[in-house]
Design goal:
The protein is an all-alpha fold. It contains 4 helices and no strands. The radius of gyration is 16 Å and the shape is elongated.
């Protein structure tokens, strides 16, 4: 499973950088003329920021799995993946469609991020205890 997380971390990191660059260079000019264009670009930047941050967090989950922490590291990893899909994905979609109703999904991604970080903390306690 740690191999899967490393691969997903690389893919998520790659797509976060690509989408962040697209937002800065391609999307900005397209959104400029829209009345809510500045707000939409802010959503995009937030999505890219959390996307990249949690691509790196996924690598941490892979490392924890490699260290033998076990199920709690799996919870962290899959929570980060799900968080990127729901949190960043909903913000990306809101930006390109203007459908603010998609914002109802965003908090569920945020909850998954919190679950993931909580699982990382638990894994950290288990690292030194020998209780994996």
């Amino acid at each position: 499973m740690s191999r899967v997380f490393v691969i997903l971390s690389g893919l998520l990191g790659f797509t976060a950088v690509a989408l962040g660059a697209f937002g800065a260079h391609g999307l900005q000019s397209r959104l400029q003329s829209l009345p809510d264009g500045a707000k939409r670009l802010e959503w995009w930047n937030t999505a890219a920021h959390y996307h990249l941050t949690h691509a790196l967090a996924l690598a941490l989950a892979a490392w924890l799995l490699h260290r033998g922490v076990g199920a709690v590291a799996n919870v962290a990893g899959w929570s980060f993946v799900g968080g990127v899909v729901l949190f960043s994905g909903s913000l990306y979609l809101m930006t390109v469609t203007g459908q603010t109703r998609l914002g109802a999904i965003t908090p569920f991604g945020g909850l998954l991020f919190l679950l993931g970080w909580g699982a990382v903390a638990v894994a950290g306690f288990r690292l030194g205890s020998g209780d994996h």
